[in-house]
Amino acid sequence: MQHTCDAPDATAENGRVLKRRLENRHIQLISISGAIGTGLFMGSGKIIALSGTSIILVYAIIGFFVFCIMRAMGEMLLANFEMGSFADLVHHYLGPRAGYILSWSYWLSWVVAAVGDVVVVAGFMQYWYPDLPTWLPAFATMFLLLGLNMLAVKAFGEVEFWFGLIKVVAIVLLVITGLVMVATAYTSPAGVTASFSHLVAPGVVMPHGILGFLAGFQIAIFSFVGTELVGTAAAEAKNPEKTLPKAINTIPVRILLFYVAALACIISVVSWANVPANRSPFVELFLLGGLPAAAGIINFVVLTSAASSANSGVYSGSRMLYGLSHQRQAPLAFGRLSGTGTPVRALMFSGVCMALALTLLFVIPEVMTVFTLVSTISAVMIIVTWSLILMAYFAYRRQNPQAHQRSTFKLPGGKACAALSQVFLLFVLCLLALEPDTRTALYVMPFWYAGLLLAYQRREKTNARQMATH
């Protein structure tokens, strides 16, 4: 089990352990940033085109189940402060094999997502510098984020705090702009008058029927990848018994503001028929608002959003490898910390893998095709991750009923709520088979999991041989 508290860690070099240096503001903004991904800014146009105004219901449903999963995770983390992350929970309650599969999969999902996000950053840089070769800002961003993560966990928290703040301010401004335009019955040059009636106009709720509504879930689930980050940051939080419940309990408020209110304002101002499927609807609203610098402002916001997601990927990936090393499921070198309490070797390995994947992306010219594929792979893995968290919750209730009784942060609805969430995740996994661009990832992923099982068996045999010889 990975020790991340202030107790001395026998396996840590020179008694070094992960430091609890993330403050309340860092934890709150990390969890907020996790809920506002590149998917919201870029993917929402495509979902609105597919699902119509029922998109708001799609986000509300996913948000409800994500909240339930996070509450289950929060209850388990607070029941035992020696658990540094949700990977430790899965390892402890479901056994080392499940912990191994979850940690390596979560590591890969963030490597893949970070690469995709860095490529998106490069694409946004070309908005200002059209002749700039894509590889230059992509590699520059990657090395900058790796450098920042090398410094100390406080640097990660600080970067994420400011990235998160920019996103939050942009969305709040968008909601205010939308509300003012509706209140003043603003009429766009295209002749569309801003009104809430656009949300319920005939033929806009489910324009493509029930299949269009269901297809919205496939893309929308990408937007929530990273919400569980608060569980990774828990090991490095000051006063986790205060910061963790606060971060988890504000998830519904954030979903209402960032998804439901923002999308309701966009549709009210632009109207469903005029929302572009291939561009950011956030840009469209500010352009209609008559702000000449709107496109540039939103371009900067989406760029920081993508950089923030990549930053989260670099951070999470290194922490997963650190945990695996302490469970003897990854090379011991990954468990070594620098003087600032940062797992530098785990960071370097993640960085090398990201750099290799980045060179591969430039071999394939269609960057956005690759981005769709990598984000789907990331989504499949996150569904598996969330499922394992729920399975760990059932095991925790069986194995540790006293802790559940003592808990002051219980999952509302208990086992029934967890079971309903598990059914929902299976339902979304089945929906991924509906569209050809998301189906590919479903075909690829079983090979990864089969490979992991083989790697786990080999590692166990090696460990058994080493134990026998000592």
Structural summary, described in words:
The protein is mainly alpha-helical and 470 residues long. The protein has a single domain, classed as Amino acid/polyamine transporter I (Up-down Bundle). 73% of the residues lie in helices and 0% in strands. The chain has helices at 24-35, 38-51, 55-79, 86-94, 96-128, 135-151, 153-183, 209-223, 229-233, 240-249, 251-270, 281-288, 294-326, 344-361, 367-399, 401-406, 414-431, 436-469. Helix 1 (24-35) runs parallel beside helix 10 (240-249) and helix 3 (55-79) crosses helix 15 (367-399). It is globular and about 80 Å long. It starts with 23 loop residues before the first helix and ends with a helix.
Summarize the structure.
This protein has 18 helices and no strands.
Task: Show the helix and strand layout.
Layout: H1 24-35, H2 38-51, H3 55-79, H4 86-94, H5 96-128, H6 135-151, H7 153-183, H8 209-223, H9 229-233, H10 240-249, H11 251-270, H12 281-288, H13 294-326, H14 344-361, H15 367-399, H16 401-406, H17 414-431, H18 436-469
Helix pairs in contact: 1-7, 1-10, 2-8, 3-8, 3-10, 3-11, 3-15, 3-17, 4-5, 4-15, 5-6, 5-13, 5-14, 5-15, 5-18, 6-7, 6-13, 6-14, 7-11, 7-13, 12-13, 13-14, 15-17, 15-18
Subcellular location: Cell membrane
InterPro entries: AA-permease/SLC12A_dom
Keywords: Amino-acid transport, Cell membrane, Membrane, Transmembrane, Transmembrane helix, Transport
